[in-house]
Structure to design on (310 residues):
């Protein structure tokens, strides 16, 4: 899978994409826009680093954040659904995790939750424990997994 | 200037930061969040790749886009001001440019416009013609210049 192929598939399917990113902090949308011509596929990115931003930009509920924590499949689901609802796109991926160093919220370093929302399909969520690979490696692994999820949705 | 120093200065000044990015596609907020502990300084990023996103997320006016084009100091100003208005931050940087390959809107490849908005100060804008360095190099140069603008604002 290359990002250029992913964009071609989206372009052929007339699918526009948005990202909703927390721990990757824009790395997914930056990777998508690395490719010339990405502007006819990549619509926008919501980089919601704080809980307030997740609520304001994506409509994540305070109760969901309080009950499950920011790094949870429940929040990943609301982030992906919120991106689909708040942007003129057909496909959105969300990423929220603990890049480290150190864990938090009684969750381990390297845990990342993903959401994939698509018009006409049920929203999917997933948790991966990448482990304590170090901040850079966790972020890169999360970026690559998010790109793979988008690719799968388009295949 | 290192990003870690920039974040320390913002932290000490109790300044939260947002980015409003077009051609850099999230590279500035990704660089800011590379650093552990960035979550107490980096609030959110608005990655407004399309004109629609610039209008929806940042309140850029259609008339400004029509009159001056997306790559203009006028749009960069409205993007930076919009980030300050739409996020609980004290400092925002905006980036809109032509990463290439090829120019557009009768503007040359490598032209990037920046905005810097800060509570209690006039918004500043700037245009740099980085030249036809290639997409990756233009995007990296624009990212680094945006980080330098944030650093200057905090010095």
């Amino acid at each position: 899978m290359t990002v250029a192929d992913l964009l071609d598939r989206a372009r052929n399917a007339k699918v526009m994409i948005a990202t909703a990113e927390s721990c990757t902090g824009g790395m997914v949308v930056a990777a998508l826009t690395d490719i010339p011509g990405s502007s006819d596929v990549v619509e926008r990115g919501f980089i919601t680093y704080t809980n307030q931003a997740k609520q304001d930009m994506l409509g994540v509920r305070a109760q969901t954040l309080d009950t499950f924590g920011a790094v949870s499949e429940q929040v990943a689901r609301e982030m992906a659904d919120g991106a689909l609802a708040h942007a003129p796109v057909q496909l959105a991926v969300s990423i929220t995790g603990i890049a480290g160093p150190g864990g938090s919220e009684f969750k381990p370093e390297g845990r990342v939750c993903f959401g994939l929302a698509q018009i006409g399909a049920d929203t999917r969520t997933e948790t991966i424990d990448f482990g304590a690979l170090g901040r850079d490696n966790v972020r890169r692994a999360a970026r690559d997994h998010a790109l793979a999820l988008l690719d799968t949705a388009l295949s």
User: Anything to note?
Assistant: DSSP finds six helices and five strands in chain A. Chain A touches chain B at residues 19, 21, 23-30, 32-34, 36, 38-39, 42-50, 52-53, 56-57, 86-88, 99-101, 135-136, 139 (CB under 8 Å). Chain A has a mean pLDDT of 96.
